[in-house]
What does this fold into?
Amino acid sequence: MSTTSTSHPATTAPPHGPDGLPDHACREAAADPTGPATVFVCDRHGTPQLWLAAPQDPEPRLLDPAPDPVVTAGWSPDGRWIAYTAAPGGGEHTVVRVIRPDGTGRHDIAGAGTLAAAHFGCWTPDGSALAVTEAVAAEAFPPPATPADLGGVPAGAETVPAARQGVLVASLVDPDGLRPARRVAVEAGSATLRVCDISADGRWMLLRRGPRGYREAVVVDLRDGRETCLLPAADGDPWIGRFSPDSRTLWLRSDEDREYAALLAVRLRADGSHGELRSVTARDGADLELLAVDRSASRAVLAWNDRGRTVLQTAALGAGGTLGPLRSVPLPHEVVTRADPDAAGGWLLSVSGSVRQPGVWTVPAGGAPARTAWTSPAPRGPVPPVLLELQARDGTPLAGWFHRAPGRSGPGPCVVHLHGGPESQERPVLEPLYQALLARGLQVFAPDVRGSSGHGRTFLGADRGAARLAAVDDVADCAAHLVDAGLADPGRLTVMGRSYGGYLVMSALVRHPDLFRAGVAVCGMSDFATFFAGTEPWIAESAAVKYGHPVHDHDLLALLSPMTHIDALRTPVLAVHGALDTNVPPGESEQFVRAARQRGVPAELLLFPDEGHDLARRASREHLYRAAGDWLTRWAG
It folds into this structure.
């Protein structure tokens, strides 16, 4: 087996694109509630780090120079602290840290253990405590299960074997360290417990609980830890709702009894029980993604996912959690990923789009969006993708974004790229991988196969159980459509995907062995038995609901596993993995490459020793772009 390990130090200069313009990404912006400053995540030095600036500052200030990739951040309501989630070493075991705006006082408050993962939830209204969720893994993982190990477990046993279960704890932590952490909720075997909001009066906490596809909103009375009500919520990671400014209404993002997530509301009684769930606003064919409220509690902003593009609206807040007339806000980018109120009555938007890197824009009250000085300007060259629609072999509607290579008008080499999740969605944003492939003359089609979000509740759940094989057939149907539409040369089709998309690549190569000339599978699952044996316990808990029970559904999972059908593989494959990946362990790629080479199929493994499930460092990603481009053009270019 050919294995390449690569490690890249972080660069020290801001990156520039081929036209000489700055080419860094800014995300997850949070406004100082007491002044003009903004904290955000940016990869100016090669790794996503924590930066701080006012919108008009020409250059931001690096707040935390630690090399650990930063995921998200949030400012305390009193402005004294900034909390953020980081991934030490680039692995999957995240920590929650706090730091003062002047860069002093940095310390970990959750997840410091080597077998833990912590998640930043929200601040208490007075800024005296931070709500976090910490997942603690089992200290020893059992060896990969064999068919004999998986028999004899009675129906109704635990969701996953006890040795694979974890414990998630939701706590309130004092950033000053003067008071001990207070546990609010403990869930044994829970996969997705998150803290979403705390009411303005400090009494109620909103938790998200339940596996993928079965989310529920839980209201907890912080006075005694009692759960007062459970309500249906839509899938969201992690936002499912928030309390109204008067603490009497709970707004929910829910798709209960409907295809697309809408904004629902319910009044809370004095004892925490709830009244009737009612619809506040909905949009045909679009999912509600975000709801934020300004500092004065007078206006709200709502973000809708309409066929991949964001529709942003504002409205005045009325009594009882009602909204006034909705007004659309013009956007400089296709997608809004976060909206945060600033101290001046406006909004801070984290946005992504098809012609520039992700950035941060300000929207003054009643004004037009303006780019912050430290957000990358639009480079010359990127062309927005085109939405393609098609039908699968069983009549299911499919759609995806087609990126045409510069100067190409007829059929040519084309890469079908598959996103992860499987609940993710392909959206019209600037993807550096696609730009690297396009520069080589490789066109890219990025579809949403069944199981993706953004296309309704039925489509989202259409890949459960044995129907996952239909999602693999969707990949083949997308390739056939590209050929029939005159967009791809049938002799130069290739396929690439990451995470669940990597699994789809392996599955497509063994189930449709004559369709693609080459494949690139990034951190994909190759065998569900070894995946369940090696992944994090809380991931196993969630995955069991999505893919199948590792004990009771053993035969189904074997059928769905690419390794079961490895004898059919004839297509050259490059597998890519982070050595620190504990979500999908690197053994999943190693065994697929080993089996391919044993059967005489060209196969290579690219291993990044300092990366986890996501390639957080720009140098690693750029190495992947080159390696993938070389591999695909070698066999189909």
